Amino acid sequence: MKLLIVDDSLIMRRAIERCVSTGRFGEVRVATNGRLAVEEFARFKPDVVTMDITMPEMDGLTAVERILRANPKANILVVSALADKATAVEAIKRGASGFLLKPITVESIQAALDDILED
Questions:
Q1: Residue 51: CB partners within 8 Å, gap ≥ 6?
Q2: What percent helix, strand, coil does the chain show, rounded to 5?
Q3: Least enclosed by CB within 10 Å: which of 61, 76, 98, 106?
Q4: Is 5 left (phi over 0), alpha (psi -120 to 50) or beta?
Q5: Where do the domains of the chain lie?
C-alpha cells in the first residue's frame, strides 16, 4: 500500500513516517503544502493521505476538496493541532475520511488508519 504524508513540519512528517514504518505501507511519499499534495496525489495515487490543515500556499481543507474532486474515493485522514470541534466537523464535511488530533502516537495513527482502510 502507498501513503502520502502532507505536513509543512519536517518533525511531524518524520513522526508519522516512524509511526507507520512498521506497518502496511510499502511506499511513503511526502508533500509540504496542499498544492504539492494535490500534484503528488495525481502522480503517486496513494491508498491513504494524511493531511495537515494549516500550511502555506494551500491549506489542507482546500487540498482535501481538490483531491476528492479528482478521486471521490480517496482516503484522507486529517491530522491537525487545531483542537476545536468545528475544525473536525469541517474536515469531515469537506470529505475527509477521518480526523486525528496532534500530538499523535503510534497507536492513535495506526487505529485511525485502520478505521479508514476497513471502510
A1: 6, 34, 37, 60, 63, 64, 76, 77, 78, 79, 96
A2: 45, 20, 35
A3: 106
A4: beta
A5: 2-108
pLDDT for res 87? 86
Cell of residue 94, nine digits: 469537506
DSSP string, 36-57: HHHHHHHHH--SEEEE-SS-SS
Q: What is the pLDDT along the chain (119 residues), one digit of tens a residue?
A: 999 999 999 999 999 998 887 667 999 999 999 999 999 999 999 999 999 999 999 999 999 999 999 999 999 999 998 777 888 888 999 999 999 998 899 899 999 999 998 86
Q: Structurally, what CATH architecture does the domain formed by 2-108 represent?
A: 3-Layer(aba) Sandwich (3.40)
Q: What Å distances lie between residue 108 and 39, 66, 115, CA to CA? A: 28, 26, 11
Q: Where are the alpha helices (DSSP H) in 3-105?
A: 10-20, 34-44, 60-70, 85-93
95 phi-psi bin (left φ>0, alpha ψ -120 to 50, beta other): left
